[in-house]
Amino acid sequence: MDITSSQNGNYMVTRAIEAMDRWMFGQYQEMIRLDSVHPQKVQLSPMVIHALYARSFFPTLSMNPSHEIAMIHFTERIKLEWTQHDPGLQALMAISRARLGYQKDALPILKSLRERAKTDDQWGMYWPRKGYGSSFFQWDLWMQSRMIELFDAVEEGNKDLDQLKMYLIHQKRGRDWGNGMVAAWATKSMLFYGSEKTMAPASVEMTWGKEQYSPLRIKTGGKGVTGYYRFEWKNAREIPESRSALVTHTEGGPAWGTLQTLNNYHLDKLSATGGPLNVSREAMIQNDLGVWKPVAENQTVHVGDVIRIRLTIKSDRELSYIEVKDNLGTGFMPLQVVSGFHYNAGLSYYQSRQPESLVFYVSQLPRGESTIEYQAVIEQAGNYFGGYAIATSLYAPEFRAWSDSFRVHARR
After folding, report:
1. 395 φ, ψ to 5°?
2. 3-state secondary structure of 300
3. Residue 387, Cβ density class (10 Å: 0-12 exposed, 13-18 middle, ≥19 buried)
4. Fewer CB atoms near the end CB (10 Å): N or C, the chain?
5. Strand partners, 344
C-alpha cells in the first residue's frame, strides 16, 4: 500500500520527512561543533544511518536547500567510515546508496560483507554473531533481514537471496523472533525477496521397514499454512519392526520433523541421546583438600555428604524456551529449595522445585555449551538410583535429549 497516494497520506509523509531533514541538519551542526574541538573519527551515529536509510525511500521529495549540506556531508562520510560500524549498519548504508543510484558506493560494502559471511548447506548464508547485542540493529535476525534487502538492491547479490532466506527459516524453527518489529522485517524478507523455491511446499516421504508413508497417504492430523503433518500409531502391532527409518525430501522448500516412540527403560540403565541438543549429568563430591571431583563408578559415599550436580547442555543452534528437568536421586535432597531466577556462567534461568525433581526454565539457550549446577545432600543410605536429566524445547518439541543415569552406594 502506497500511503502517499492519498492527499492526507502524502501530507503526513511530507511533514515527517521535513522533520527528519531538520533533525539531520541539527545533528550536522552539532557534529561540526564537536569536530572543531576534537576531530571525530566516527561521525555517523546509528540514528543518522537509519535516517539516511529512511530518506532513501523518498528521493523525489524536495529538500530545503539549507538542509542539503547535512545530507551531502553524511553521505560522503559513508565512504570514509563504513568499516567502523556493525554489519547491520553497513547494510543500511549500502542500501541507502544503492537505492539512490550510487551502486559503485554500495559494491565495496557488499563485497566485504560477502567475504565475512559463513555459508553451509543447512544454515544457508549468515554472519556469525559475537554475543548478544543490546540494540536491535545488533540482533542477528534483524541484521539478516537487512542483508536480504541489500543483496536484492544490488544486482550482484541477487543470486544469494535464497541462501540468506534459508537462515531465517531455520532460526524460526527453534527460536522466538524476539519482538513484533523484528518479526515484521523477517516476514517481509521471506515474502518479497528471492525466488519462491524456499517457500514452495515440501515433498517428503518416509520409509519405515516395509511400509512407505507420504503426505498423500496420511489421513489423520491436518495440513494448514504451516505445512504440518502428524501421524500416530496407537496400536503396537501396527508399528514396523525396523529400528531405522528413511526420510526422503524430493522437492520444495526445507522440511524437518521427528519420529518419537514410547519405550520402557530401567532408569538406572539409561544412555545419553545424541543430536542437535545434548545434555550430560555429572555428580561431584569434595575430596580431603576441598576440591570437587567426579563421583567414580561404584564409589561409596556417606549420609550427610554434599553432592554437586553439574548439568551440561550442548546445542548446535540457538533455541528458545528450554526446560531442563533433573530427576533427583532417590536419597538426594537439594540444598536450594526456594524457586527463583539465577545467572551462572552467561546463562540465565528460572529454577523451580518439584517433589521429585528440579526444573530449570531457560528462555534463550545460546549456541554451544552451557552449564547449570546445584548442590544436594545425601539423606539416605543404600544402593539406589542416582537420577537423570531431560532437556526439552517447549517451542520446538523435536529438540529433546536426556542424560546417562547412574547408581549411588551410600553408607551411614
Report:
1. -85, -40
2. strand
3. buried
4. N
5. 347
52 Rama sector, left if φ>0, alpha if ψ -120 to 50, beta otherwise: alpha
- 313-340 residue pLDDT tens: 999 888 999 999 999 888 888 888 889 9
Closest CA to 184 of 136, 229, 236: 136
Asked if 173 and 256 touch (Cβ cutoff 8 Å), the reply is yes
Cell of 192: 518479497
Report which of 270, 389, 271, 273 is spatially closest to residue 332, judged by C-alpha positions: 389
3-state helix, strand, coil in the chain (%, to 5): 35, 25, 35
- CA torsion angle 315 320 324 325 (round to 10): -140
pTM for this one? 0.82
Phi, psi of 132 (to 5 degrees): -110, 125
Quick one: how far is CA 285 from the chain centroid?
A: 35
| pLDDT for res 232 | 77
**Stretch 285-313: mean pLDDT, rounded?**
86
Compute the C-alpha angle 136/140/146, nearest 5°.
80
Residue type, 97: R
